[in-house]
């Protein structure tokens, strides 16, 4: 749904409970189930609920991450040049930008897996416990171990019932616990890797491309954040608001968003959609969106011109 290729998310956690879910209310679901039993409607695809809880960790200090005049690159390629950023307790950031700009390098610098050429990257001094879910986390799983063995090995001082409860919250049923990792699907392996990630007490969560790992729609993840940082021109452009605020302030990003949505709508008729809209209605909707974008663009241009002459 986004023109940007990859996204990195960082949660500075105050209360370590995140619930990622998609679905209707209990009453609506009960009504739908009755209709399905009477074969009046087809059963749609429904994303299962995944409840995410992290162990108790205590409250961190206000300052969590401080980046001062960061300089970093690989060979002649410069990724960051005098970049600055501060992250405080309770913030939920989305780091966005095109491929190769340094989004996946930034968490490695925060986790001290890479060293800056200049400047500094500092973690807060009071109870900042970082937890990093990197891109290749799934590849680190041992294929010959079972689902249960994988989590038990990583758990410290966890009771058996608690481990099974964690696996259950990640949608692993009892009959899957003795299944070898090699027999799991890609999505199941990703959820198993995330189970291991959830075992560690944390106050700073850093997730590299979580939409790929957990099959959660990008737009749904972006609705969670309250701050957007764009990696651009070897620096960090800070937007002190949610993703909609970022789009309001960035015409290029709005254009990419609308182009991607139009592209998805063109592909939608190939898949059985929930909506009964005709092709003509969908084309009209796309036209309305494009007109709305052009109007917003002209309004923004007019505002900038008026400021220039005032």
How much helix, percentage-wise, in residues?
Answer: 25-40%
Biggest sheet, spatial arrangement of strands:
8-9-1-6-10-11
Whole-number tally of structural domains: 2
Order of helices and strands: EEHEEEEHEEHHHEHHEEHHH
Mean pLDDT over the full residue set: 76
CATH H level, superfamily name of the largest domain: P-loop containing nucleotide triphosphate hydrolases
Number of helices: 10
Please report the distance between the alpha carbons of the first and last residues: 38 Å
CATH C-level class of the largest domain? Alpha Beta
| CATH third-level topology of the largest domain | Rossmann fold
Counting helices, strands and paired strands, the structural category is alpha+beta
* Low-pLDDT stretches: 1-6, 13-29
| Approximate shape | globular
What radius of gyration results from the CA coordinates?
Answer: 22 Å
Report on the biggest sheet.
Answer: 6 strands, mixed
Strand content: 15-25%
Question: Nutshell version of this structure?
Answer:
This protein has 310 residues and is of the alpha+beta class. The protein contains 10 helices and 11 strands.
Walk me through this protein's architecture.
This protein is of the alpha+beta class and 310 residues long. The chain folds into two domains: 6-18 and 53-248, Rossmann fold; 251-301. The chain is 37% helix and 23% strand. The strands form three sheets. The chain has a six-stranded mixed beta sheet. A three-stranded antiparallel beta sheet has the order 5-4-7, with no helix packed on it. A two-stranded antiparallel ribbon has the order 2-3. Helix 8 (243-249) packs across helix 9 and helix 9 runs antiparallel to helix 10. The longest helix is centred in the C-terminal third of the chain and has 31 residues, at 279-309. It is globular.
